[in-house]
Amino acid sequence: MTPRLAVFDCDGVLVDSEGPVNELLAASLTHYGLPTTVEECENQFVGGAMPSVFREARRRGADLPDNWLDEIYSKMFERLSQGVDLIDGAMDVINALEAKGVPVWIASNGPMQKMRLTLGPHGLWERLCGRILSREHFAAKPAPDMIEHAIRQSAVETGQAVMIDDSESGCLAGVRAGVRTLGFAQRGQADALRLVGAEPVKDMREVAVRFGLSI
């Protein structure tokens, strides 16, 4: 069934930014006394807001300075300004949804500046202006606030909306909002996303099939 509203996570769903970010994060945590691999960052921190990562890393023993968030964001923005690819098929799905008059929104636990850097070169920052939501202005996922805002602004019923996210926290936000939730499981996390109530999908072609779209 084609939804009346589609809400996407950004990192790891629309843009392939999680690899570079997790490389920076793993290096930083290791530097500050918490040996961490990229894979561990993917398993433990994907979908989380960076302030939550800061608190959890300190709890686990990382000797992070008080200005660590500024430091990691500076490194992250520098890396992302070099460009990241779109997830394969993401633009095709967005184009197909909008061709059917379905509004597309983004709900991310990342800051707006990060999304401007990753979405801008692909034209999506300007194209989706006013429909890009961040935890800077709403409660972070797994709270459902961003999704509920998109539903209200789009004037659709909850049952007509769909959330697509690759993290447990993001999928849980969709479930808590009462919308159909697709778990974007390209990293092999299908079981974990299924456990929080999402329908796992392996790629954007499967998303298109679930939406009744041809891409």
From TrEMBL:
InterPro entries the record matches? HAD-like_hydrolase_sf, HAD-like_sf, HAD-SF_hydro_IA, HAD_2, HAD_sf, PGP-like_dom2
Q: Which UniProt keywords apply?
A: Hydrolase
| One Pfam match | HAD_2
Q: What are the protein's GO molecular function terms? A: phosphoglycolate phosphatase activity
Lineage: superkingdom: Bacteria
Q: Which GO terms describe its cellular component?
A: cytosol
The pathway to which it is assigned is: Organic acid metabolism; glycolate biosynthesis; glycolate from 2-phosphoglycolate: step 1/1
What is the uppermost EC class here? Answer: hydrolase
Q: Does the keyword Nucleotide-binding apply?
A: no
List, in alphabetical order, the GO biological process terms annotated in this UniProt record.
Answer: DNA repair
Q: Which reaction does it catalyse?
A: 2-phosphoglycolate + H2O = glycolate + phosphate
Q: What is its EC number?
A: 3.1.3.18
Write out the similarity annotation. Belongs to the HAD-like hydrolase superfamily. CbbY/CbbZ/Gph/YieH family.
- Note the PANTHER family from the entry: PHOSPHOGLYCOLATE PHOSPHATASE
Name of the protein this chain belongs to: phosphoglycolate phosphatase
What organism is listed for this UniProt entry?
Shimia isoporae
